[in-house]
């Protein structure tokens, strides 16, 4: 088969590699689409130290089963797959917090299990049982279904922070994640959402895809603060979500949220960067800060259902499709802020 192989930092080679062999109790799936994620870009650029080379990365993909030794997953079934494979045995898994599993394995994150930037993938019976797998229903676009991975992380954050029927939710960053936060906050009854984006081209792209409530401000902007205060009679936003890889946004979020409000630190920031956080404001204003990382298989199922039923409009997010051989071009376009969600298509 052909695959886009990550040979080392910033080095992708589209090449012939051996076909995967169907594991006992497992399947072989022909990949139809694989989403390109911000974390893939970080891995591509050599962002973290635990990465194994060469690796086939890509962790949000869908396709059709072409070989099966599994009783549940049969040839011809379409699946969408997300990377998290919790162990099911550790202290966290046993308490239903599988997203923080101590023995987490991941598909396509350059940690040893090949991912979706390839023509074929093998999934073992163990992965099919413990992982995040959804059978794509009749009438659901297989390419759109890849959005369920990103939507899982977003939905998990909303559930953990118990965001429901807020008056004003402010989201910093208009990437796939920021826009999903806005759509999911609205589904959960938010009266108003504001997506704040400092790059004017990304603002225009989001608007042209039909997203509403997109504002061209930096999170530090005094004008933004004044607008939020005006909308809330001087209180501040109920919730501020940082959906960008910037420490500054985390500092600013504390200034934009109301007393007893909630802040979610969603986007990871560079290692070793410690943004100044106004802890007195947290203390006196009783602000709660939530971390957010990954999702459980149950949340992944719910997220898939948001997409398969059309409550989340997956088609609005996918702005770019690349042939698999052009993955390096896709990474460059992503870095330049040209896309909302890009996907690779192997054929
Ligand atoms: Zn992802
Ligand atoms: Zn575990």
Secondary structure elements and pairings:
Blueprint: E1 2-8, E2 11-16, E3 27-36, H1 38-44, E4 61-68, E5 78-82, E6 84-85, H2 91-94, E7 105-106, E8 120-123, H3 125-130, E9 132-135, H4 147-160, E10 168-172, H5 176-187, E11 192-197, H6 200-208, E12 214-216, H7 222-231, E13 237-242, H8 247-256, E14 257-265, H9 279-285, E15 288-291, H10 297-308, E16 318-323, H11 327-335, E17 341-345
Parallel strand pairs: 10-11, 10-13, 11-12, 13-14, 14-15, 16-17
Antiparallel strand pairs: 1-2, 3-4, 3-8, 3-17, 4-5, 5-9, 6-7
Helix pairs in contact: 4-5, 4-10
Bound molecules: zinc ion (2 copies).
Q: What features would you highlight for this structure?
A:
347 residues; alpha/beta; Quinone Oxidoreductase, Chain A, domain 1; Rossmann fold; 2 domains; seven-stranded mixed beta sheet; six-stranded parallel beta sheet; 11 helices; 17 strands; 27% strand; binds zinc ion
Summarize the structure.
By secondary structure, the chain is of the alpha/beta class.
């Amino acid at each position: 088969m052909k695959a886009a192989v990550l040979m080392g930092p910033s080095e992708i080679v589209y090449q012939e590699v051996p076909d995967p062999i169907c594991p006992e109790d497992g399947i072989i799936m022909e990949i139809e689409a694989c989403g390109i994620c911000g974390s893939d870009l970080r891995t591509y650029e050599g962002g973290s130290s635990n990465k194994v080379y060469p690796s086939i990365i890509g962790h949000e993909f869908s396709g059709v089963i072409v070989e099966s030794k599994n009783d549940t997953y049969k040839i011809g079934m379409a699946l969408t797959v997300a990377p998290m494979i919790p162990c099911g045995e550790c202290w966290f898994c046993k308490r239903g917090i599988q997203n923080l599993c101590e023995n987490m394995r991941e598909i396509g994150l350059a940690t040893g299990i090949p991912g979706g930037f390839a023509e074929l993938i093998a999934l073992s019976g163990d992965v099919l049982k413990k992982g995040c797998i959804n059978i794509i229903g009749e009438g659901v676009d297989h390419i759109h279904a890849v959005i369920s991975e990103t939507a899982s992380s977003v939905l998990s954050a909303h559930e953990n922070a118990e965001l429901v029927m807020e008056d004003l939710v402010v989201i910093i960053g208009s990437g796939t994640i920021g826009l999903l936060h806005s759509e999911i906050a609205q589904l959960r009854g938010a009266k108003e959402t504001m997506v704040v984006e400092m790059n004017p081209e990304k603002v225009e792209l989001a608007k042209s895809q039909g997203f509403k409530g997109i504002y061209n401000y930096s999170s530090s902007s005094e004008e933004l603060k004044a607008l939020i205060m005006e909308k809330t009679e001087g209180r501040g936003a109920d919730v501020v979500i940082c959906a960008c890889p910037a420490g500054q946004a985390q500092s600013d979020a504390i200034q934009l949220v109301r007393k007893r409000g909630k802040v979610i630190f969603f986007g990871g920031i560079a290692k070793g960067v410690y943004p100044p956080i106004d802890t007195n404001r947290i203390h006196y204003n009783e602000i709660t800060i939530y971390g957010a990382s990954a999702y459980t298989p149950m949340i992944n199922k719910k997220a898939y259902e948001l997409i398969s039923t059309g409550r989340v409009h997956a088609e609005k997010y996918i702005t770019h499709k690349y042939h698999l051989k052009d993955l390096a071009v896709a990474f460059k376009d992503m870095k330049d802020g040209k896309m909302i969600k890009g996907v690779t298509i192997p054929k």
